[in-house]
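Reply to dn_fold:

You asked what the input looked like. This is it:
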Amino acid sequence: MSRDHVQSAERSADSAEAPFLELLARGASADAYEQPVLLARAESRPPERIAALEQAKLLALRVRSEIEGRRRREAELSALFETAHDLAGLRDLDAVLQAIVQRARSLLGTDVAYLSLNDEARGDTYMRVTEGSVAARFQQLRLGMGEGLGGLVAQTARPYVTDDYFHDERFQHTQSIDAGVHDEGLVAILGVPLMIGPQVIGVLFAADRRARVFEREQIALLGSFAALAAAAIDTANWLTETRSALDRLGRANEIIRDRSGVIERASDVHDRLAELVLRGGGVHDVAAAVSEVLDGTVEFAEPGDAPPAALEASRTEGHAVRHGDDWVAAVAAGGELLGALVLRGHPGLDPVDQRTLERAATVTSLLLLARRSASEAEQRVRGELLDDLLDSRDRDPRLLRERAARLHANLDGPHVVLAARLDAASADADQEAAARRRLWSAASHLATTRHGLAATRDGGTVLLLPLGPGDTATSLARRTAKDLGTAVREGVTVGASAPVERLATRPDAVAAAYAEGQRCLDALRLLGRAGDGAAAEDFGFVGLLLAGDRDISGFVERTIGRVVAYDERRGTDLLRTMDAYFACGMSPARTKDELHVHVNTVAQRLERVGRLLGDDWQSPARALEIQLALRLHRLSSAAPH
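and this is what came back:
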């Protein structure tokens, strides 16, 4: 292929991106991305132009899909937090149920959401509240236990999902149910149980009038929302029953005051937990708030740190269980065990306080799930930006700076690229993969806290961290190796590049710095320094071979800089004396003949060199570095300026 043809193809590829960037900027529909290709074919453009447009279209559609996915995740988390806020102020059962279905529909972005409650007297479940429904027969449905999707959820206490209800043979289809679903036009349906402890009180549904696959994350989110919704229904029922009891016991003023205090206390706890969720509190904030309410010490424990038997019993029963003088409430979401809230040294716990602890565990699970989703999204964004800096050479500096600013990173300041790898390789593939995930997680956390970036690469992790005041590439590498090793509980070796700046305008510098960091990493492992961190400057003259920019002046300065400065200030001849000394086989007698000075003069000069460079300057390793530095200094001084 001729050079002109290659250049023409490159220009075609560059210009092909323009119409799709405009479509991305104005948020066009997916169908609109076909127009530039169709127009090019209609105008009989060259094949390479059409191929470039096709490639640019696919890339733009992938970017559009990623943007839409992130917007959807943000909307889901926002709806979840808004729900907690709304439920905190509700006291009427009808208002609670209406808020639940409204938020469920908003949470998953479905056409319809509805809620059924179990009728223990009749042994079935009936439609209680709908949102987005238009069919009267559907709104009046009753489902026997095991009938239809909803009856199966109510009977088994497990979530069920179908992307095409009428063609799904797993469910017991009945004429009345199918007629109601047909009137409503529903196709895809997701149902999750509303549970108070082990008891199913109803089913929460989200449904679409078109085929749709509900993702595992959506099922888990709706399940977690259903747990909060069940607690809210339970609270509303409980408050209703309590008010009725208070009305019947109007003459018993003391009982009324006590019961009222219990109600207000439960309401206060609910409001405080909801407020914590809204202002971005963490699990330890929840534990502190419940500690204050229960007048005890409540701690969050990881799954491995909680009493196993009590934790499993709480998870199975859905209630806090007693363990000696402590109480344990499992923190779970979507079937996954996330930890436990442990109330210490409080053997006597009344039912209200027990329910408070259980409700706090539910809120904690929501917080952990939301934090995990947000953290994973941010980690992916940081990794994608670093991947672009490592792999791309033609990125727009302005866009790179904007993306970095959203992550609280500044690409214009001095940074160091660090290559990190686990020291010990496991024979078990699953254990090896788990260890790498732990390293990636620790590196991502480190990058977030230090306003840097992290990505997985070449079986290890690469980090881009800012160089702080007083830091060097060496100190940053050693501190990073220590922090990562502590986090993953095994040795991590880290090789660092020399500092690099203005990364937004010099994206190629990041790839070169990463290669230098890898060379330092390999050198550390070859030298038996696994688990350590270092930069090229730590390897003496070997560092000249490792460094990407061959920092000769830096090597000379580190090795004999103090002698050079002494000669310049005092007008002495120490450098020439050292040259002659090494040339004469380190013999003072032969050196004095070479310099035509007295042997005492040679001894005095060598003693001065020792004070400047250290007593070990004549050791074999130091002597080799010093001779190389003298030769490089002499060559650089003789070079024309």
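The CA atoms of residues 148 and 173 lie 6 Å apart.
Hope that clears it up.
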